[in-house]
Design goal:
Layout lengths: L3 E4 L2 E4 L4 E7 L8 E7 L6 E6 L6 E3 L7 E6 L4 E6 L8 E8 L9 E4 L3 E6 L1
Parallel strand pairs: 2-11
Antiparallel strand pairs: 1-3, 3-8, 4-5, 4-9, 5-6, 7-8, 9-10, 9-11
């Protein structure tokens, strides 16, 4: 069993930056691919970013390319999402997820955190 705890969300103005963290329990962190997803009010959850088991491959949604960066620190069992140039449309509940590979599909992830709220004001 893997438990994930997100942190780092908050209320910021447009143009600001935030770094989300996802801390994982257990000793199997290294074998997972990781993803970040988000869900805005009234909308379906959507893919944001993913990183491979090795950390050498990353994927991003078009809406965040060039602004967000996903990374992992195996020594700290933590995955990060650096978010720069935030926009009001980035407002959502952000979830991290762990699975066998880095995927853009929710169904490919086995473990999910509870989410951390990001609110961007205009």
């Amino acid at each position: 069993q893997v438990q994930l705890v997100e942190s780092g969300g908050g209320l910021v103005q447009a143009g600001a930056s935030l770094r989300l963290s996802c801390a994982a329990s257990g000793r199997t962190f290294r074998r997972f691919g990781w993803g970040w997803f988000r869900q805005a009010p009234g909308k379906e959850r959507e893919f944001v970013a993913a990183i491979s088991v090795s950390g050498s491959s990353t994927d991003y949604a078009d809406s965040v390319k060039g602004r967000f960066t996903i990374s992992r620190d195996n020594a700290k069992n933590t995955v990060y999402l650096q978010m720069n140039s935030l926009k009001p449309e980035d407002t959502a509940l952000y979830y991290c997820a762990a699975g066998d590979t880095n995927s853009v599909r929710e169904v490919d992830y086995d473990y999910w955190g509870q989410g951390t709220q990001v609110t961007v004001s205009s």
